[in-house]
Amino acid sequence: QVQLMESGGGLVQAGGSLRLSCAAVGGLISRADFGWYRQAPGKQRELVATSRTSGLTNYGDSVKGRFAISRDNAENTVYLQMNSLKPEDTAVYYCNAKFGDSSDYNFWGQGTQVTVSS
Predict the structure, then answer these.
(1) pLDDT tens digit string along 65-89?
(2) Which of 7, 8, 51, 84 has the greatest number of beta carbons closer than 10 A?
(3) Confidence band for 100, pLDDT divided at 50, 70 and 90
């Protein structure tokens, strides 16, 4: 069983930056595709960024050019650097890890709140 421990959320003013962390316990991040998703009140969960074991990354249209996903294998942690934050970025951010195609190998973190004030 893999546990994903998220941290780094908080309250920030518009234009500011935050870095979210997703530390994996019980599995090596080098063996998984990772993603960050977010869910705002009353809205569906949406993709923010993904990082595949191949090295490929992908971003949601609303965060391209502002957010960056990265990995630190030594720390066994995946990061989401968020710059030029906007009030519409306010949401609960979730870390996801896929160690295989089966749902048995799909794990989610508990979520971390990001609030951007105008």
Answers:
(1) 999 999 999 999 999 999 999 999 9
(2) 51
(3) confident
Higher pLDDT residue, 100 or 22?
22
Distance, CA of 84 to CA of 77 (rounded, Å): 23
Closest CA to 37 of 14, 6, 15, 16: 6
6, exposed or middle or buried, with CB in 10 Å at 0-12, 13-18, 19+?
buried
Quick check: 59 and 78 in contact, CB under 8 A? no
Question: How do strand 112-117 and strand 91-98 relate by DSSP bridges?
Answer: antiparallel
Alpha-carbon separation of residue 104 from 34, 36, 88, 97 (angstroms): 15, 19, 33, 11
